[in-house]
Specification:
It contains 17 helices and 13 strands. By secondary structure, it is of the alpha/beta class. It has a seven-stranded mixed sheet with strand order 2-10-9-8-7-3-4, sandwiched between helices. Strand 5 and strand 6 form a beta hairpin. The radius of gyration is 31 Å and the shape is globular. The mean pLDDT is 92.
Length: 448
Amino acid sequence: SGRRMLARATAQIVHRRARDAGAALAKRTLGKEISATRRSDRTTTTTRAMSRFGDVPEAPKDPILGISEMFNADAHAEKMNLGVGAYRDDNGKPVVLNCVREAEKRIAGNFNMEYLPTNGSKDFVQQSLKLAFGENSAHVADGSIAAVQSLSGTGSCRLMAEFQRRFMPGCKVYITVPTWSNHHNIWRDAGCEQDTFRYYKESTRGLDFEGMVEDIQNAPDGSMFLLHACAHNPTGVDPSAEQWREISKVMKAKNHFAFFDMAYQGFASGDCERDAQAIRIFVEDGHKVALAQSFAKNMGLYGQRIGTVSVMCKDKEEANRVESQLKVIARAMYSNPPMHGALIASTILGDAALKAQWYEEVKGMADRIIKMRTLLRKNLEESGSTLPWQHVTDQIGMFCFSGMTGEQVDKLRTDHHIYMTRNGRISMAGVTSSNVGRLAAAMHEVTK
């Protein structure tokens, strides 16, 4: 009995020692794992500390640039890029206007490479204002318009948005639905409060005039409205002259401020005077408007980044003060605007013969776009489509808002190698006599 008790005690001691040894081993193992994890965490933290921008996320792709990337990766022989808003001739090739080439010849070797002033080329700015407000505008003549050369249309809008933030406190900007997508980016980055107003009516694929007027009337007094002067992007839908007069009247009653973005003067209808009618109507009605001008489309100066931003003021003294603030804003953003494109544009606009040649060439570009609209509609109607296509020719300018859905646009890309933005916007500049038939057949196929 004593031996059995001794044996049990011995066994218990051995069991406890084994258990304790196992626990110690497990503890040591866990300790090693914890230490390894801590070392890994320290390594990750150290790596992040060494990579200052390790946590910066990749930005979403620009929808238009993304289309170009997909187009470039497509090896199909008959692929079509109808996404980019840049003019092409009837062979699908980029165009340099003859008047631009002649201006370049006159400029070459005759100017130094010094900085322009922050407000840019005075001659170019004056020529731009005359083109927009009229050759004999009293407001241009008396110096009551503050204006600076800017980085094309985008730069003009960005300067105005920053000016609004600094000197129009509490003023909200109202933007059309839909609009050029970069408008929202520009005013967001400037820190301005945004809202929208009705513009396009899906059911008619035309102007929602009643909804537009109602939203203008319901906006707080003294709001800013961003208006497309002509060739609305992306819809191609413009108010008539009579509708512009009514819009002007309603905005005047509400003391609203009109900021016109004019990227297509001359390119829309082929007539620079007609394309400026909205601005002229507002000025005649006594509005003090602001304006963004671009010479990318109508002179083909895409890469030169040439534009003007202007603000109508009470008198010359006020204009000087406003212009001084625009210069301060520009100074911090980019300091000085580019010279070459300003010289090209001012040479063309300041020479009667070159200006006449430009009028003819810009009308030629507009007429080709109008012809492609006519052919596209004709081919669609002859394809057997039972859908209405009148809006193709009713709309104006570089873009046709087709009415196709995102899914239909996807099928154009996957089944027919035709590329455009998913809102159904067609860049008519990419449509040619040789591909319009295939485009119409593909559109009919995905919409029937």
